[in-house]
Each structure stands twice: as C-alpha cells, then as structure tokens.
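Re: [ENG-882] Designed sequences occasionally contain unexpected residues at chain ends

Forwarding the minimal case from QA. Structure tokens:
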C-alpha cells in the first residue's frame, strides 16, 4: 500500500510562523505590562489579531494532519489527532474531483474524495507526498466516478 502523508517542510514552515507569531504576542503583552507607550486600543487590537491568526493556523495544521493509504482495492484514512481510522472499499467512493489552479507559473492541485457515508477528505500536491500516485490510482480504478469539469468561457 502507498501512503500519502503531510510533507515535513510544510509543517516546519507553518510551525515556524506560529512560533514567530507567539513571540510577537508575548512581546506585545510584555510591552503593555512594562512600558505602555501606545494606547490601550492598539495593544488590544494587536493582541486579538495575533491570537486569532495563531488559532487559525493551529486549527488548519491540525485539520490537515491526515494519512491516506491506498492499494489492493482499499482506501484507508487515518487522522492521528482525532484517533480515527476508517477503511473504505473502492465501491464506497461516491465521487472524486481534482481541481487545478495555476498561479505564478505554479500548479496547485487539490483532490477531494467523497464516500458513501458522506465523509470526505482533500489532499493537495503542495502539502502531501505521493499525491500524483493517488491521483493516478483513482484515474485507473475509478474513472467513472470522477466529477466532470464544466468549461468556463
């Protein structure tokens, strides 16, 4: 079985950004506690904004932390932070779709799979390894369940 898992570089970069933002929040709160050279509205705004961005990044990182194994007629999804593992046969796939967006001469691909129990997951080529193999696997095994793209004028 082949496994699609998160890229370490993606989580390292996002983790570094979270650490920098936490440092900025600590600095702002320390500056408020010791010097108070700015108005209280500025401190409140900066603290709330930094806290929201930190929380959004952490939630995004935790929600996207998943492992997908595929092969031998099975797709296995594993969410370690939620302690959930689900096994699906290929006949349990309702539809799947691959979206392609080209920006700044880079391709961003996202693959979404929906199962018959109404659960779904998405993986992207920039955040997961073995994305191409999974896309090829679905194109070989389930070509009839692919969502047809509408042409845009």
């Amino acid at each position: 079985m082949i496994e699609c898992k998160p890229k370490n570089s993606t989580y390292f970069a996002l983790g570094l950004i979270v650490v920098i933002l936490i440092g900025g929040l600590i600095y702002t709160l320390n500056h408020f506690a010791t010097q108070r050279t700015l108005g209280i509205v500025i401190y409140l705004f900066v603290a709330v904004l930094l806290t929201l961005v930190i929380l959004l990044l952490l939630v995004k990182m935790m929600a996207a932390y998943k492992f997908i194994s595929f092969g031998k007629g099975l797709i296995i999804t594993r969410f370690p932070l939620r302690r959930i593992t689900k096994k699906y046969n290929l006949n349990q796939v309702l539809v799947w779709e691959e979206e392609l967006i080209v920006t700044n001469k880079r391709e961003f691909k996202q693959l979404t799979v929906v199962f018959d129990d109404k659960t779904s997951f998405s993986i992207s080529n920039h955040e997961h390894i073995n994305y191409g193999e999974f896309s090829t696997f679905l194109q070989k095994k389930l070509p009839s369940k692919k969502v047809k793209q509408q042409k845009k004028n």
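QA comment: On inspection the terminal residues look reasonable. The CA atoms of residues 95 and 144 lie 9 Å apart. Proposing we downgrade this to a documentation issue.
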